[in-house]
């Protein structure tokens, strides 16, 4: 299981960080006068929180740090211009990984049965290399029958932290592309999910990718509900993530990112 996250304010994610060279002491050198002296060419560096001194990671010199502050300063004007409102922030690994979500409350779609959707964007950044800087289009679903709020990752764009391909000037461009993707999803993906009937292989296909503890609740949900189309199948999966799994774990987030493309692919193939 992944480590649980901590929900924090936007300001709490903007803690200062710095890079510190990883100093080494060579065991043998050709020049005896240098034996035992510190060297600063180990090829590694520490990423350290300046507010509490915690070491977030040890990275190679090729890693280019992009601070949370840099990300937020770059994306906020574009998000506000497009009508987005800050929803929540989550940190993992004592701050080594951060996830922010913005909601677009003025864009709504009624998919029937009382389900109202709003698009959202989730941005991820990390200091330990586990996450690339990424921007994900998603849907914010309000389930009127039980008040649950469920987010589903729909599409993503990523930018690696490397001295070769990290360009902060492109972040706003990636955000605009992701905003445009939400419109595409609402106009193209969701109608396909709603209008396409599931075939007999769809439920078993989803079962194969679920963790063991989620299989029985998922099958039970499908047997107790009329799963007519792929939207219903997606609803079954999102119900399981909220009731049988812990949505505070990174493993559940990764599963969400895996299952939606699977369901979308099956719907597209059947359409």
Average pLDDT confidence is 79
Low-confidence stretches: 143-155
Rg, please?
22 Å
User: How many domains make up the coordinates?
Assistant: 3
N to C succession of SSEs: EEEEHEEEEEEHHHHH
Net shape? globular
Count of DSSP strands: 10
How much helical structure, as a percent, in the residues? 25-40%
Task: Please report the distance between the alpha carbons of the first and last residues.
Answer: 36 Å
Q: What does the main sheet amount to? A: 7 strands, antiparallel
| Number of helices, counting only DSSP H or I runs of 4 residues or more | 6
- Main structural class: alpha+beta
The proportion of strand residues reads 25-35%
Write the layout of secondary structure elements.
Blueprint: E1 6-8, E2 17-21, E3 44-49, E4 55-60, H1 68-81, E5 85-92, E6 97-103, E7 109-112, E8 115-126, E9 133-142, E10 149-159, H2 171-195, H3 202-209, H4 212-224, H5 230-243, H6 250-270
Antiparallel strand pairs: 1-5, 2-3, 3-4, 5-6, 6-8, 7-8, 8-9, 9-10
Report on the structure:
The protein is of the alpha+beta class and 271 residues long. It folds into 3 domains: 14-60, no CATH class; 68-182, no CATH class; 196-270. It is built from 6 helices and 10 strands; from the N terminus they run ββββαββββββααααα. The protein has helices at 68-81, 171-195, 202-209, 212-224, 230-243, 250-270; strands at residues 6-8, 17-21, 44-49, 55-60, 85-92, 97-103, 109-112, 115-126, 133-142, 149-159. Strands 1, 5, 6, 7, 8, 9 and 10 form a 7-stranded antiparallel beta sheet that branches. The protein has a 3-stranded antiparallel beta sheet with strand order 2-3-4, with no helix packed on it. β5 (85-92) and β6 (97-103) form a beta hairpin. α1 crosses α2 (171-195), α2 packs across α5 (230-243) and α5 (230-243) runs antiparallel to α6 (250-270). The chain is globular. Mean pLDDT is 79; it is low at 143-155.
